[in-house]
Amino acid sequence: MQNKVNDCHSKTSSPRSRIAGIFLILASIGIVRTAQARYVLESPDGNVAVRFDLKDIGDRRSCPTYTVSYNDRLVIADSRLGLAIKDNVPLEAGFEIVEVSRTSHDSTYSPVYAERKTIRDHYNQLVAELRESRPPHRRLHLTFRAYNEGAAFCYTLPRQDALQNFVISAEKTQFSFTHVGHKGRKVRLRAGRLTTLDGMAPRSRPQGGPASFDGRYSR
Asked: If you compute the radius of gyration of the chain from its CA atoms, what whole number of angstroms results?
């Protein structure tokens, strides 16, 4: 299985390792200020910022969390990230950060159907490689992208001995929007749902909902 995410939102490419992604389009927002985090990813113009960290929440330790801000004003407050695994412990807590890498990308592509002939694909990217601090030491990669127009993230499960046969039953992604619904403050959300994994196939896809994956790796 490829360990890198090929795409974080809907385009014409064929994603292989992607599990799920979201894309946030930012308009005018509220007045809540951002909090500190260990890892900050900014858009090329510096207006959009995604903050990622591991935090203790209640009795759960080292939970992946993120925030999204625009012009230093909070759009999404501390929200948790995770995946539910059928008949297994969810991938949502007890992590340690193994490695964090950053890249930038700037290109154009021609969509099949769109208002514009070419679209600029310009973003900064951060990939956080996580591993459970206790056995079986399952691994989860989180990829964040910051565009001038918004932010995106997706989950990747790399090939690993600790997770050979599994079913992803649900996402446990939270979206703690601030001031949503107030006059003059709008946030639009585009959700790009999972399609396929390298060596896996969707087991089922409820109408309008995410697919479940039968996680048997093909060698």
From this structure: 17
Q: What are 173's two structure tokens?
A: 């992604």
Encode pLDDT of 89-115 as tens digits. Answer: 999 999 999 999 999 999 998 988 878
Query: What is the rounded distance in angstroms from the CA atom of residue 190 to the CA atom of residue 48?
Result: 16
What does the DSSP 8-state code read for residue 28? S
* DSSP class per residue in 90-127: -BSSSEEEEEEEEEEEEEEE--SS-SSS-EEEEEEEEE
Kindly list the distances between the CA atom of residue 144 and the CA atoms of 39, 67, 74, in Å, as whole numbers in the listed order: 11, 11, 17
Segments of the chain scoring below 50 in pLDDT: 1-20, 27-32, 34, 180-187, 191-219
Dihedral Cα 84, 87, 91, 93, nearest 10 deg: 110
User: Which letter does DSSP use for residue 208 in this model?
Assistant: T
Residue with tokens 């479940």: 212
Q: Which fold has domain 20-214?
A: Beta-galactosidase; Chain A, domain 5 (2.70.98)
Distance CA 120, CA 116 (A): 10
Which two structure tokens, joined as six digits, stand for 209? 């909902």
Residue type, 53: D
Ordered strands of the 176-177 beta sheet: 39-42, 48-57, 60-70, 73-80, 176-177
Q: Identify the pLDDT of residue 164.
A: 86
CA-to-CA dists, residue 134 to 39, 100, 129, angstroms: 23, 20, 16
Q: What is the pLDDT of residue 215?
A: 44
